[in-house]
């Protein structure tokens, strides 16, 4: 399971809010959730690349829109130079789209160089789509290869969204591993 502590212990002064357009927000549906519907998916695969190379690929959030399934938008919002080789957190705006719907939301991206990248939707960034959305990528050396593991935890703010997406999310972890594998072939020249 992904620990939400890193995502929920942030204070309002440490993050900024951005106005985003919402296709889901127009429904105006109430939140019937009980707080216990988080879904979890995990997928892993050993890839023929160095741990450092896979970490750099995943840490480069700005590029997600070019290859991550259902990602329609990705950009780092944190101002100034960002050193992906140092531990820390940055704010990012991400967009997901499916069957004509799109939702943009802000996340905190926590970098632990060469070990993990955690992307957490933060409750301070209001969106009518997600109650929880966390993705954790871990990189474990295996001989001269690296195991890439992706853990996905999510809960929708409304049961209608959960129903519409039930089949959609079941294969997302596997699709994400495949997308990073294909991107690594291009970036790492293998």
TrEMBL record:
Start and end residues of each Coenzyme Q-binding protein COQ10 START domain: 48-181
GO biological process terms held by the UniProt record: cellular respiration
Single GO cellular component term: mitochondrion
Alphabetical list of Pfam families matching this protein: Polyketide_cyc
Protein role: Required for the function of coenzyme Q in the respiratory chain. May serve as a chaperone or may be involved in the transport of Q6 from its site of synthesis to the catalytic sites of the respiratory complexes.
Family to which the UniProt record says this protein belongs: Belongs to the COQ10 family.
Protein name as it appears in the record: Coenzyme Q-binding protein COQ10 START domain-containing protein
Native organism: Wallemia mellicola (strain ATCC MYA-4683 / CBS 633.66)
């Amino acid at each position: 399971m992904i620990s939400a502590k890193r995502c929920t212990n942030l204070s309002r002064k440490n993050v900024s809010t951005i106005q985003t357009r919402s296709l889901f927000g127009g429904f105006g549906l109430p939140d019937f959730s009980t707080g216990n519907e988080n879904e979890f998916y995990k997928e892993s695969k050993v890839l023929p690349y160095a741990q450092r190379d896979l970490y750099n690929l995943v840490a480069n959030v700005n590029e997600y829109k070019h290859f991550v399934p259902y990602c329609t938008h990705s950009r780092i919002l944190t101002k100034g130079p960002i050193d992906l080789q140092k531990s820390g957190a940055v704010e990012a705006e991400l967009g997901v789209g499916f069957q004509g719907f799109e939702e943009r939301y802000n996340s905190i991206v926590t970098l632990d160089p060469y070990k993990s990248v955690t992307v957490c939707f933060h409750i301070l960034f209001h969106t009518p789509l997600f109650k929880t959305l966390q993705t954790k990528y871990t990189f474990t050396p295996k001989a001269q290869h690296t195991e890439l593991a992706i853990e996905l935890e999510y809960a929708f703010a409304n049961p209608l969204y959960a129903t519409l997406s039930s089949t959609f999310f079941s294969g997302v972890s596997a699709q994400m591993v495949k997308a990073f594998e294909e991107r690594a072939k291009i970036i790492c020249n293998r």
